[in-house]
Fold this protein.
Amino acid sequence: MTHWLILPVMLPAFVAPFIILAARFHMGIQRAFSVAGVFAMIAVSLYLVIETADGTVMLYQMGDWAAPFGIVLVGDRLSTMMVLLMSVLALFVLLYSIGSRWDERGRHFHVLFQFQLMGIAGAFLTGDLFNLFVFFEILLIASYGLMIHAGGNARLRAGVQYVLFNLLGSTLFLFALGAIYAETGTLNMADLARRVTLIGADETVGIRVAAVLLLLVFAIKAAIVPLHFWLPSSYAEAPAPVAALFAIMTKVGAYAIIRVYTMVFPTDLEVTSGLHGDWLLPVALLSLAVGAVGVLAAKKLDRLVTFAVISSMGMVMVAVAIFTQESIASALYYMVHSTLAAGALFLVVDLVRHSRGHLDLVVDAPVAGAALVAGLFMVAGIAMTGLPPLSGFIGKLMVLNAAYDGGQMAWVWTVVLASSLIGIVGFARAGSILFWKAQSEGAPEPDPDRPAAPSALSFVAVGCLIALLLAHTVFAGQMYSYTSATAAQLFAPQDYISTVLDTPGKLSPATDAEVTPGLAPELDPSADGALDQGATPEGDT
Amino acid sequence: MELLVASAIGILTAAGLYMVMRLRTFPVILGIALLTYAVNVFLFAAGRLTKGAPPILRDVATYADPLPQALVLTAIVISFGMTAVVVMIALGAFLGTDDDHIDDETGPVAKGEDAR
């Protein structure tokens, strides 16, 4: 068993305490270690992506305990891809926060940043639902700190909303987990996949409730309408680099939906068959539309971008909800694009804030160096709204193509195209107010509190994110074939399940039977008693 | 015992939800605490209710499932930490703006109502 798989979790878990213990008064050392940590993270996740690219499923058993008893980390194409995406985004966000000196405006920015990475990486890699809850909490508690970084009343108020909403979400998650455990007696995803199919047709009430509760929790994380209300004010009030990093957090919800609803509750499972088409697709289309209308209606640039994020999450969820192999492949392609585009846009918004002093969408004096910022805004806006030639366009095309054969084609095409148009109008309006109509009526008031202008490094960071978007466009063919392979792996989860459950370790069913022969029948998941008693294998250990 | 536990979970959840809908920080935090208690009891019940049984499987017929107990411990620790964080942030927001409403859109209006 190699230990590489746990490194994306362990690395930040060591870097963060080191920073807080040894370097808390030295910003330079903090920055050096934080950047070095993220670089190492990229290297490790690149290695994991290469290792799993041929379809291998990597398994890490914590403490060498075998699967349903111990907690496992599992790395397949999807999870390693998401970890790589997260670490690449984190690098440029970190460089931006150093370049714009956001990290100096409060304490412990780098520590919380590293803990945030730890939580997100863990959520992508874990193979256990309760462990997923724990990693959610790690990433959330770090995000609470990052969200109110640098303080300020508006930010604290938004922070209270954000924290309370997520606390409610966590409570709901626990209810879902309790219901699942009561029904199946396990929380390991691979083990669940096996056991859910064993539930009799007339005993599905509990597991259906649990499946819906779980979907609700992940929909909160993914900010799907009508569960999106936490997102606009918290992302708009959060410091810009933090909001850019949060671009990956909504994707954690989307990832969890894809993972759980391909493996545990697949479409061909009768118990939960209506969940994707009947429920997820309409709300996904609704989020797409609400996001687009929000873009058009926004009075401030940061709100506009947050609604663009909601809209693009709606786009991802539309593709997920169609739930064919092809649509999941395009959802993954679009997810990478939307993460990079949202990250770049939040950083561009911060550049605009620096040069104008405020973000209200009103005609104001032109600003120095507007050409570069305007150019960056335009490119990022084109990517976000899905205009050709950037990857947003290709991604939307893929989703439309995937929807072409399905019965909901009319709905999907209408809403996607209409909301794209509304989004484009919204971005064009904002861009023309900000940069084109700017008139020098009255001198701009100098803002005494305005922090130092962003250095070249910030522009380099934004430029790199946009360059990544370009690369994502140019290599769309290669990316799509990779995401197709990922989707194929997701739709054939037997490999994943057998790797998780059949890899020997301490207390694996085979060795356990030798120790306590009398208990062997109960450990067999197909035994009748295991399901309805809830006298579970975990209990037996 | 089933009725007692089930109604305890139900009452705690209902009270918690009611408090959360008050939309002022203090009741909401109390409501979330109540919801946390409800979910903790719910997790216990997920392992089936057993009385006076050991949580270790020896050669006895009945035993208590130890896994939900471990889950509840984790959940308690996490919710304790989270509650402490939210109390601090809410206190900071209240001291800064002199307003403990959670709904930001109606902030100024609500302030006027308070003065009345």
Summary: The interface with chain B takes residues 130, 134, 137, 140-141, 144, 148, 151-153, 156-161, 163-164, 167-168, 170-171, 174-175, 177-179, 181-182, 233, 519, 533-536, 538-541 of chain A (CB under 8 Å). Chain A has a mean pLDDT of 86. Strands of chain A lie at 58-61, 72-75.
